[in-house]
């Protein structure tokens, strides 16, 4: 396991969202910080307060530049605590940072901040995106310019509290449905407005189908059901929705014909790494495709002190993803 070197070693980083902007490879990760808070299923130990941006002008084997703090919790009026996994997007020469955090009432929401450069800084909107909830925003801008925000995460990510159209605090303790007769909770998607600051439509569910039964994955299918860390990329005209299975610690993917899906389960990309969480992104840089991910090797296995890594992925003739070099022991 975890046979690659961390890309960044002077700070702890996690949840890497990688993009190529202006021909340069950038990574937008969470910035993990030490805390005395004990690990729990709430994720209270992930107590992050700001974001850095990193560039890799020569690709994953070259030097990494830290562009410093580009947004911090004190600058966002609605944020209470816990700035979790962010993502970035570019549209019409402007750059956008999407980020989740608990608001002052402890409810996870998603915010947006805008900047003139991929390296930040980013100026946040005063309020979270209207109608947003839960965690792990991932912005996909399609070839026609339409932009979509995917989001959601169960357990500490609170997605299980949003099945009734409002935040149902009483559903928090359940964490998720269980049983072979119930569908799994789904990630969410909404197209963004042209200015990238709001949802342009009602939030919809991202359904993952079993390739055999063509039915939505079941709640009891913890090896394959969505938990958190949504990511979408396009390869050979198809939309790939990838995600973490959380408590079973896999990174998986599913393939669809449109940004909305439904997506048919395709397989695993990465086996469990050192540390509880697994979270990733997939990006093409020059001729190659890369998986950015994290583990907790840099801190000797502390779940909340993680490090970002990258490795090449390939596609077989059927479009199935595999690691260019198999994951080591
Ligand atoms: O980094 C905090 C949380 O841990 C992220 O939002 C999840 O995806 C998991 O990696």
From TrEMBL:
One of its GO terms (biological process) is carbohydrate metabolic process. The keyword Cell inner membrane does not apply. InterPro entries: Glyco_hydro_43 (IPR006710), Glyco_hydro_beta-prop_sf (IPR023296), Glycosyl_Hydrlase_43_Enz (IPR052176). The keyword Transcription regulation does not apply. CDD domains: GH43_CoXyl43_like. Keywords: Carbohydrate metabolism, Glycosidase, Hydrolase. Signal peptide: none annotated. It holds the Pfam family Glyco_hydro_43. One of its GO terms (molecular function) is hydrolase activity, hydrolyzing O-glycosyl compounds. The record marks 136 as: Important for catalytic activity, responsible for pKa modulation of the active site Glu and correct orientation of both the proton donor and substrate. Gene3D superfamilies: Glycosyl hydrolase domain, family 43 (2.115.10.20). Belongs to the glycosyl hydrolase 43 family. This is Glycoside hydrolase family 43 protein.
């Amino acid at each position: 396991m975890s046979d690659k070197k961390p890309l960044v070693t002077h700070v702890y980083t996690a949840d890497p969202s990688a993009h190529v902007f202006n021909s340069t490879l950038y990574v937008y990760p969470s910035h993990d910080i030490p805390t005395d808070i004990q690990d729990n299923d709430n994720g209270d130990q992930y107590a992050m307060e700001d974001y850095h941006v990193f560039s890799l002008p020569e690709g994953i084997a070259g030097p990494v530049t830290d562009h410093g703090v580009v947004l911090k919790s004190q600058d966002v009026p609605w944020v209470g605590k816990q700035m979790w996994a962010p993502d970035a997007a570019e549209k019409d020469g402007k750059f956008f940072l999407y980020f989740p955090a608990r608001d002052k009432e402890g409810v996870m929401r998603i915010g947006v901040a805008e900047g003139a450069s991929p390296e930040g800084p980013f100026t946040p909107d005063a309020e979270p995106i209207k109608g947003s909830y839960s965690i792990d925003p991932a912005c996909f801008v399609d070839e026609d310019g339409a932009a979509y925000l995917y989001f959601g995460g169960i357990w500490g990510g609170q997605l299980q509290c949003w099945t009734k159209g409002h935040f149902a605090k009483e559903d928090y303790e359940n964490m998720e449905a269980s049983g072979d007769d119930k569908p799994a909770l789904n990630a969410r998607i909404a197209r963004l407005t042209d200015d990238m600051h709001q949802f342009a439509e009602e939030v919809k569910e991202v359904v993952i189908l079993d390739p055999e039964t063509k039915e939505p994955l079941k709640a009891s299918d913890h090896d394959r059901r969505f938990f958190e860390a949504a990511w979408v990329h396009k390869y050979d005209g198809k939309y790939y929705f990838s995600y973490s299975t959380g408590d079973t610690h896999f990174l998986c993917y599913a393939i669809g014909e449109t940004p909305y899906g439904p997506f048919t389960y395709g397989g695993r990309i990465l086996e469990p790494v050192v540390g509880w969480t697994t979270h990733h992104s997939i990006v093409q840089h020059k001729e190659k495709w890369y998986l950015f991910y994290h583990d907790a090797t840099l801190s000797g296995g502390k779940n909340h002190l993680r490090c970002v890594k990258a490795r090449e992925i390939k596609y077989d003739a059927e479009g199935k993803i595999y690691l260019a070099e198999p994951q080591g022991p």
